[in-house]
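2024-03-11 09:14:02 INFO worker-7 job=invfold-0412 stage=load source=structure_tokens
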């Protein structure tokens, strides 16, 4: 029996372990999910919503313990972990209501023809999730899948299996047996799930893994939704609030140690604003408190593991070897910690320009015009999010020229309730959230009746 050990990245102590699912077990797990799916579907949307409402009570009761486990297993500051769980608890009822409403049948009338579009379950859905938000992202995928009447296999990242499993256990307390099952293991187990007889794959993670899923899924026409990597840009225009832009860049570039798909990895600033912006960014970066996430004073915790730390440092060293300059940081501290880093003179022939960094690194690019800023931001295969700071009219004009699926004006990209979380190009295939996003976890089925002559 093999186990997967999970380590605290701040102390390198073992947090716990989970038994690794074997390839031989996958077939039985899928069979159980298929067997119980019709009964789960037959309950109807309202009954499923009521069951999951009971889960929200259990989640609220265990929220603090779950947040502590997030910090111990992946390192983010406890205040961020508390926020991650708190947002889920606070919005649970509203999310259930929104998903349920999206699944209501649509009615159409055309003369003597009356059609009803039902949004029925697809079957068995595999939710494959990353390590940077080990509760929020599984919740984001599992909830609409379950409300729609699907059964779910959750395959969390091997870097944070304990936290995602703890979240799943809370739901399992109220769900019928085998409606939600957790599969533990690395990439080969994920591949085995993708190749199994499931009906749908909902994935959040790297673009490279997303491409592998897309190569396999068409063999039996599995439904696929992918939220993939990001390498977001922040554009600072003339007459922008430079202080606010600098604060936003540092806060969003280094939150969760930069291990966020919408992290501000590239700051693009017009030349006359650059000295003030850079000075303020460096000042705020150097004042960040680095430490164990369990200390409430900590603003920047460790990276998730040594492998991720080494990958980020390799990207920095490669950039410097090709002419980039380090304005602050750029060095490893003890264990999984590293100093938050600001680079400049980064060019398109450097690996760091094209890769999702997923670490505490911001690249500052100085340009001469608004047009140059737009071209620079669009010169990326990723197109998840972007932010523009400047007068509202100018910022909106620039926003409409960007390829990103989500653009924030003088603030974060997250939209109002009911809007989708959507990327373009290498950052997305399908999308989550919104009525249309929730409906992607269902099969549209049209039932038509006619009155009078045929």
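2024-03-11 09:14:09 INFO worker-7 stage=emit residues=454
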């Amino acid at each position: 029996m093999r186990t997967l050990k999970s380590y605290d990245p701040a102390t390198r102590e073992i947090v716990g372990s989970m038994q690794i699912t074997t390839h031989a077990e996958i077939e039985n797990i899928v069979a159980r999910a298929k067997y119980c799916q019709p009964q789960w579907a037959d309950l109807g949307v309202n009954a499923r919503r009521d069951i999951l409402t009971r889960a929200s009570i259990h989640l609220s009761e265990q929220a603090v313990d779950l947040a502590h486990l997030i910090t111990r297993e992946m390192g983010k500051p406890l205040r961020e972990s508390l926020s991650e769980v708190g947002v889920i608890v606070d919005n649970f009822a509203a999310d259930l209501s929104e998903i349920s409403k999206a699944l209501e049948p649509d009615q159409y009338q055309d003369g003597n023809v009356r059609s009803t579009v039902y949004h029925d379950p697809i079957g068995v859905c595999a939710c494959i999730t990353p390590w940077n938000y080990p509760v929020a992202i599984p919740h984001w995928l599992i909830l609409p899948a379950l409300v729609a009447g699907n059964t779910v296999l959750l395959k969390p990242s091997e870097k944070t299996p304990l936290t995602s499993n703890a979240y799943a256990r809370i739901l399992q307390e109220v769900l019928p047996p085998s409606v939600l099952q957790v599969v533990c293991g690395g990439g080969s187990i994920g591949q085995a799930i993708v190749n199994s007889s499931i009906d749908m794959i909902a994935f959040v993670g790297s673009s490279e893994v997303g491409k592998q899923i897309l190569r396999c899924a068409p063999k039996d026409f599995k439904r696929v939704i992918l939220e993939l990597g990001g390498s977001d840009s922040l554009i600072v225009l003339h007459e922008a609030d430079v202080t606010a832009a600098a604060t936003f860049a540092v806060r969003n570039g280094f939150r969760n140690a930069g291990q966020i798909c919408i992290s501000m990895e590239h700051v693009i600033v017009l030349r006359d604003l650059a000295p003030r912006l850079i000075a303020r960014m460096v000042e705020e970066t150097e004042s960040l408190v680095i430490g164990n996430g369990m200390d409430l004073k900590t603003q920047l915790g460790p990276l998730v593991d040594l492998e991720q730390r080494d990958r980020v440092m390799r990207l920095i060293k490669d950039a410097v070897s090709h002419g980039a300059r380090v304005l602050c940081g750029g060095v490893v501290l003890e264990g999984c910690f590293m100093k938050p880093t600001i680079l400049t003179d980064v060019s398109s022939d450097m690996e760091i320009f094209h890769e999702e960094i997923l670490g505490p690194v911001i690249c500052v690019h100085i340009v001469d015009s608004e047009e140059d800023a737009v071209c620079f931001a669009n010169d990326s295969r990723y197109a998840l999010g972007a932010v523009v700071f400047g007068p509202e009219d100018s910022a909106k004009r620039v926003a409409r020229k960007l390829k990103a699926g989500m653009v924030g004006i003088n603030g974060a990209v997250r939209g109002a309730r009911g809007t989708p979380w959507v990327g373009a190009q290498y950052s997305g295939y399908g999308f989550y959230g919104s009525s249309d996003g929730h409906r992607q976890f269902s099969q549209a089925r049209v039932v038509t009746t006619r009155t009078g002559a045929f």
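2024-03-11 09:14:09 INFO worker-7 stage=report msg="Residues 3-228+427-449 form a domain with the Aldehyde Dehydrogenase; Chain A, domain 1 fold (CATH 3.40.605.10)."
2024-03-11 09:14:10 INFO worker-7 job finished
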